[in-house]
Amino acid sequence: MRYGKPKVKKCVGCGGRFRRDSTSYHMKDEPYKGNMICYNQKERKQFETKQVRNINGGLELEKGEYTHSTYSYILWDGESYKHTDYFFCSGKCSKAFAYLCASQLYKKGAIK
Ligand SMILES: [Zn+2]
To answer: Does any domain span residue 49?
Structure first.
């Protein structure tokens, strides 16, 4: 499930940062060129593997010529987060805060 943009900079419960709901991609043929926010992009060079005979006559795999590159990267739409009830980074934080609120109200006699 995707959540909207938080209304505050940091989680009201723990003061932690909101985690982005991003997706990792691997072994892509081209670097990313779209409109999403792209980070951690890495190029990985691919080489052919050759079978060669070693001096004992056995077969061995050897790194051959460079063939192409593949890319891995993480994409984020710039607005989706893993979890936020707009003020909280996680369900745990929103529950803890709700509990705190409820116990304060209970102490004041607002709820019975
Ligand atoms: Zn939190």
So the answer is: yes
Ligand 1 centre to CA of 28 (Å) is 34
Ligand 1 centroid to residue 12 C-alpha, Å: 7
Q: What is the pLDDT of residues 73-86, one digit of tens each?
A: 999 998 888 888 88
Ligand 1 center to residue 51 CA distance, Å?
A: 54
- Domain extent for 62: 23-107
The alpha carbon of 25 and the centre of ligand 1 are apart by a number of angstroms equal to 27
Residue 35 alpha carbon to ligand 1 centre in Å? 29
* Total residue count of the chain as it appears in this document: 112
Backbone angles phi, psi at 55, to 5 degrees: -65, -20
How much is the pTM? 0.66
Residues pairing with 20 in the sheet: 81
